[in-house]
Inverse folding.
């Protein structure tokens, strides 16, 4: 029985949920004048965000591209590298928010700390997933499929939790300023959604 296919598709579905966390960082611009401080802060963060978004998107794309892969070993390598890339991207996002300093809003320091903590925790979660994938037994297809299934479940949990602080980071004038920055807008041309 070929057991990895449906499971890898589940992994892809879970991953696209995980991308929601990043999309939370790239809210749509809601006009309005925001002050220079907020704009400067947003630019500092967003200039760092763009390459990381691209890295996460290409990692997601590599897992999607492997969704029909029959070779457990190849699938393991693809997933492991993707999780490693996503983990590194979240670390870099956390560093970008940290290095930018507190946003110029009430409780800015608290909001910043929470966002950094969340991004770092997400990075660690992906690192744990990478470790889990690396430990899977590729010689037994059924065991491998079961292991992948567990990882997909963990991914689902990961994508449904944990972006509260990021949402807070994007409220009010800072959020508006971030939304105007090209760096915080989703990279174009890499969407997997079909045109409506």
């Amino acid at each position: 029985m070929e057991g990895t296919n449906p499971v890898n598709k589940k992994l892809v579905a879970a991953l696209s949920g995980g991308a929601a966390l990043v999309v939370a960082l790239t809210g749509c611009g809601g006009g309005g004048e925001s002050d220079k401080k907020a704009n400067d802060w947003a630019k500092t963060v967003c200039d760092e965000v763009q390459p990381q978004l691209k890295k996460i998107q290409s990692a997601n794309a590599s897992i999607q591209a492997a969704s029909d892969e029959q070779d457990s070993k190849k699938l393991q390598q693809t997933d492991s590298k993707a999780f490693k890339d996503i983990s590194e991207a979240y670390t870099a996002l956390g560093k970008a928010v940290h290095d930018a300093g507190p946003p110029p809003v009430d409780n800015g320091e608290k909001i910043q700390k929470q966002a950094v903590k969340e991004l770092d925790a997400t990075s660690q979660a992906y690192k744990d997933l990478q470790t889990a994938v690396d430990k899977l037994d590729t010689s037994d297809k059924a065991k491998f499929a079961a292991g992948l299934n567990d990882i997909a479940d963990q991914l689902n949990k990961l994508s449904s939790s944990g972006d509260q602080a990021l949402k807070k980071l994007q409220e009010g004038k800072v959020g508006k300023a971030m939304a105007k920055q090209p760096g915080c807008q989703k990279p174009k041309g890499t969407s997997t959604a079909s045109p409506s």
User: Anything to note?
Assistant: The chain has seven helices and no strands. Residues 9 and 67 are 6 Å apart (CA to CA). Confidence is low (pLDDT under 50) at residues 27-32, 190-196. The two ends are 37 Å apart (CA to CA).
